[in-house]
Design brief:
This protein has helices at about 10-25, 35-55, 55-60, 65-80, 85-90, 95-105, 120-125, 130-140, 145-170, 195-215, 220-240, 245-265, 275-285, 285-305, 310-315, 325, 330-340, 350-355, 375-405, 410-430, 435-450. With about 450 residues, it is mostly helical.
């Protein structure tokens, strides 16, 4: 039985806003040794108290598929930490070096788990407290899809504003929250400029969708001005970033926004009661879209002209083939071939990589993540983790088809959600955005917004 009373409209905003604020300023790094983590996780655990107090079975049923997938993922992470008899774990692929070392030390009868670095595995399991709080708090507060998208848009705006201020104030700016970060670049609320740029691209899509559907849903007129201002603020944060991948994703997001705008153009013939200006706009929708595209192009050209578009310069002057992430790809393939069955344990990549690292890649720069999160998921999580991921893909695809099949007017929504997930997928091919708690929360809320979105919304 639920303990929830009827909420005032502001209550969900207060709780979710507080959680978003905490995650924004403490959850931007994927490193387990950042001091912010020691504050973030206890606060997330505290916010689980109201979530568990107010939640009911009816709330969980609203997103039962997501809750089940999250539970399966947590169970598999836990099973990787269960100690196994020597005869079992020593028979697993890639454990020969550990078994030989145990024999030299005379501890060959030691029980060990699947996780090759158990301390990192326990840390990875503990990290689930943040996305779990995001999921249960949103469900217990009965947040709807649009509310979650608005909060994501707010986080995107905060990330962009902070990133622009970081660039303006220089490399020594106190606005950089993390000791290990990309100083001189607009990292915003994150520690990694690639993660910030990818999130900005997603924010562009979400803000554009909210703005394009605002009038249809009869929101107050000033909200449309807010959405437009937010869009114009987030765009420069992508342009001034030195992330080539972020720039590509940003340009892709702009193309999708243009498609969304085209789908939302007025199709009706103006009536005699329509004002002259509104009638003219209704009769010339293509011209409006062209003006929008020209304005965006002029803004980007201005940044390039003033030398403030590092991403464009890097795309032209720096070869991606020379990047370290491409050099280690054969090693990643070798690791995946070895550990694809049950994995090495979540969080263990950095240590296990040393078993495969060739002398030719012994450089001052070290690899703490694979910079290919899909490959790293296979290496650390093995086949069970991949199956859970594929099930999630199937659920997302089915949800999008369901939205599209209900009404042709949902094309903009499908483009927004589909492109947002595509950006996360593309970013994970070259980096590891979902390793940071902040991006995990955004990912959970995007999935939840899709699950809770009503087909009748435009």
């Amino acid at each position: 039985m639920s303990n929830r009373q009827s909420f005032r409209p502001a209550v969900p905003w207060v709780w979710l806003g507080l959680f978003a604020f905490i995650v924004a300023f403490l959850g931007g790094s994927s490193r387990p040794d950042m001091g912010q983590i020691t504050v973030l996780r206890p606060l997330a655990a505290l916010l689980l108290i109201p979530a568990l107090y107010y939640i009911s079975l009816a709330d969980i049923r609203r997103a039962k598929a997501l809750v089940a997938l999250f539970a399966l993922f947590a169970v598999w992470m836990s099973l990787q930490l269960v100690p196994l008899p020597p005869s079992v774990w020593q028979s697993l692929p890639g454990r020969e070096a550990v078994a030989d070392l145990d024999q030299l030390l005379g501890i060959e009868e030691t029980w060990r788990p699947i996780a090759m670095v158990p301390s990192r595995g326990w840390n990875a399991l503990a990290s689930l407290i943040v996305p779990l709080a995001a999921l249960l708090l949103a469900l217990s507060m009965r947040a709807n899809g649009r509310m979650l998208l608005m909060i994501i848009a707010g986080l995107g705006l905060a990330d962009a504003v902070l990133g622009l201020l970081q660039v303006i104030s220089g490399r020594t700016s106190p606005l950089y929250f993390y000791s290990i970060t990309n100083r001189g670049s607009p990292v915003g609320i994150f520690a990694n400029e690639n993660h910030s740029a990818a999130f900005s691209a997603i924010a562009l899509l979400v803000i554009a969708y909210l703005g394009l559907t605002s009038k249809v849903l009869r929101e107050r007129a000033w909200m449309q001005i807010v959405y437009a201002a937010a869009f114009v603020t987030v765009l420069p944060a992508i342009v001034v970033s030195s992330s080539r991948a972020g720039l590509a994703m940003g340009l892709g997001a702009l193309l999708v926004v243009c498609a969304m705008a085209w789908l939302s153009l007025p199709k009706a013939t103006p009536s005699h009661k329509t004002g002259k200006v509104q009638a003219w706009l209704t009769e010339h929708p293509t011209l409006i879209l062209l003006v929008f595209v020209a304005a965006i192009g002029a803004l980007i050209a201005a940044f390039i002209g003033f030398g403030r578009a590092s991403g464009f310069e890097d795309a032209l002057n720096q070869s991606a083939v020379d990047d370290l992430r491409w050099s280690v790809l054969p090693i990643l393939q070798q690791m995946a071939t070895t550990y694809w069955g049950v994995g090495t344990g979540f969080g263990s990549f950095e240590e296990v990589y040393h078993l495969f690292e060739p002398t030719s890649l012994l450089l001052p720069r070290y690899l703490n993540q694979a910079h290919n999160d899909w490959m790293q998921l296979l290496i650390e999580g093995g086949l069970p983790a991949v199956l859970i991921l594929l099930t999630t893909f199937i659920w997302v695809g089915g949800s999008l088809i369901k939205q599209f099949g209900h009404s042709g007017k949902n094309g903009g929504k499908i483009l927004m959600f589909g492109s947002a997930f595509a950006i996360i997928g593309a970013a994970s091919l070259l980096d590891y955005p979902l390793r940071s708690p902040g991006f995990q929360v955004v990912g959970v809320w995007l999935l939840l917004a899709l699950a809770l979105s009503r087909p009748e919304e435009a």
